[in-house]
């Protein structure tokens, strides 16, 4: 690695060595989504598309998603893209805010390498969703810049 190379992203075994397990993932998901639901930018989207009576099921599904993604548990079997494609108001402001709040949450709750792993994975997921949503909407993606990082207040 040279001086100009980005920091390597930790692998799951490094995060597991720091304590990453299903309980940590559950804590991250529950803390993040409690804050997200009250957030002035992304909260209205969550409240409009995930009613109260489906909120716990949503948390369980997202916990399974992160467990599958970071620990390889294979518990997640959903298809998140169609649900996100159906949210017509979803835009880059929502993605930036989601990522800022997520970075804040994992930085507060997780050891450094684990937080870095969550952050890297969330940023890749957000970019993939943006590209798929943009393609579905017929947007020109050729020169679309990556999301900029928004600070969390």
UniProtKB/TrEMBL annotation:
Key word Metal-binding present: yes
Single GO term (MF): heme binding
Keyword Cytoplasm: no
Keyword list, A-Z: Heme, Iron, Metal-binding, Transport
Pfam families for the chain: Bac_globin
Protein name: Putative hemoglobin
